[in-house]
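Dear U.,

Please find below the material for section 3 of the report. The protein was modelled together with zinc ion; I have listed the sequence and SMILES used, followed by the predicted complex structure.
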Amino acid sequence: MSEKRTYADRAEYIKKAVSARRKRLREMVVEYKGGQCVFCGYSRYVGAFDLHHVDGSQKAFGLSERGVTRSWERIKKEADKCVLVCANCHRELHGGIKQLPREILGRITR
Ligand SMILES: [Zn+2]
Ligand SMILES: [Zn+2]
């Protein structure tokens, strides 16, 4: 019995540690990318940001799932290919309502 409990406690501990690390990494990436949406300048809440890949593949940059296992160096490399956008602008971007300004594309990809 007690063994089971210990295991559950540990699982809970690990879960907490992982989500804390996830949150920290997200904050680091947002800060690294300038801390605001490239479109509207939104900067209030770190959880409302997305990274949008500018290479045209429109592949999502998964901070939430596999991001945990990535090293900070790898995350930075990936983040260099992305622009920081808020969730609203990101949707509009994919919906074709917004386009990335040329100057931003140039700055990021090359
Ligand atoms: Zn995107
Ligand atoms: Zn925005």
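For the text of the report, you could mention the following: The first strand starts at residue 49 and ends at 53.

Regards,
Y.
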